[in-house]
């Protein structure tokens, strides 16, 4: 009860609720639908039922302790195999990233992005990670680099309106609608 004796108001409080709220808003940044912490995908039932991939390691605003963030993806059985391959390749890229093997990570993320695109999945995460790795190749991180993104704000809605990402022949736009661009000959998400 967060109210008074005259007016009762019940709500949820605590670190778990705060983290869930931050993960919900991170969907805008990554253009994902369902982000969860590592604790969720460590549950065997969840791991068996859903395809998942690591997205990032973040320290949300107000916390110093980092959290590994995963995307949980569901799909039609007909395209599940391709989605699993794409998620596995993305996970490989994420492992290379955490091990400071940025060149290998870029290649794995590019391959994963192409697999996601082949399955008609809107994809921004692999483009973000490729860009981040390319920056780290050009400007190597300090020896104490831990790969944690320290988030300094609570909301990411304004990021969703940024310019579309382009991955090889796939353009990623803010509303997730696929179309063939006849002038460029590319499959685009606009």
UniProtKB/TrEMBL annotation:
InterPro entries: Nucleotide_cyclase. It comes from the Eukaryota. This is Guanylate cyclase domain-containing protein. It comes from Alexandrium catenella (Red tide dinoflagellate). The lineage of its organism: Eukaryota, Sar, Alveolata, Dinophyceae, Gonyaulacales.
């Amino acid at each position: 009860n967060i109210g008074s004796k005259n007016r009762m108001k019940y709500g949820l409080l605590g670190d778990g609720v705060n983290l869930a709220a931050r993960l919900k808003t991170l969907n805008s940044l990554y253009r994902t639908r369902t982000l969860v912490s590592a604790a969720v995908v460590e549950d065997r039932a969840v791991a068996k039922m859903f395809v998942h991939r690591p997205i990032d390691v973040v320290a949300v605003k107000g916390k110093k302790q980092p959290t590994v963030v995963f995307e949980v993806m569901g799909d039609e059985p007909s395209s599940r195999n391709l989605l699993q391959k794409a998620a596995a390749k993305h996970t490989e890229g994420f492992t290379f990233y955490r091990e400071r093997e940025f060149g290998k990570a870029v290649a794995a993320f590019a391959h994963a992005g192409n697999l996601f695109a082949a399955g008609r999945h809107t994809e921004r995460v692999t483009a973000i990670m490729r860009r981040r790795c390319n920056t780290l190749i050009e400007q190597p991180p300090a020896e104490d680099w831990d790969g944690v993104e320290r988030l300094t704000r609570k909301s990411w809605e304004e990021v969703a309106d940024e310019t579309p990402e382009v991955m090889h022949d796939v353009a990623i736009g803010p509303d997730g609608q696929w179309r063939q661009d006849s002038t460029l000959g590319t499959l685009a998400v606009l």
